[in-house]
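> run fold Phosphate transporter (Pho88)
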Amino acid sequence: MNPALLNVLVNFGSVLLAQSIPFGSRPEYVLWARVWFVFSHIACIVVYYYCYDKADRRNDLRPLKYMNYKSKSDKPHVTTVRDYDLVETTTGMTNVFLALLFVGFLHVYARYTSPLVAESLVLSWHSINAPVVKVWFWGRPATGDLARPFHASQRIAKPDDAAQGTAK
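> ok
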């Protein structure tokens, strides 16, 4: 299945699941949603920390040269595989903490409960499918789509590419 379509289905499915839970009539469901929310965030942080530790211990000092399209310079960015993986895992942990703060604010201040469940599912899905987690936690070889530098998957293929069965 197309990864972009699968991500959309996971996002919409988690929202539908979260809205179908009767939090108003069953107050104990709110407690379970909170526990699940905290547990999923702790699990994601542990997975990212495991990947960080494993990349740090491997100490792969092979040079990695790539064009960083976020910067305005035309010079290629030069780093090592170790440093690149450490930055990727740190970015993943930062995303987990930001999601924790944002949804925690929605729950504590605005009294929304459905985002607890939806964010738990979506965050877990995106964390286990992150390229750095696939390489270090699941042990997949860093070839093909998992070759460094990690590229974001193309969201929507052009119509002529889809007709030919190839995405550029």
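The two ends are 17 Å apart (CA to CA).
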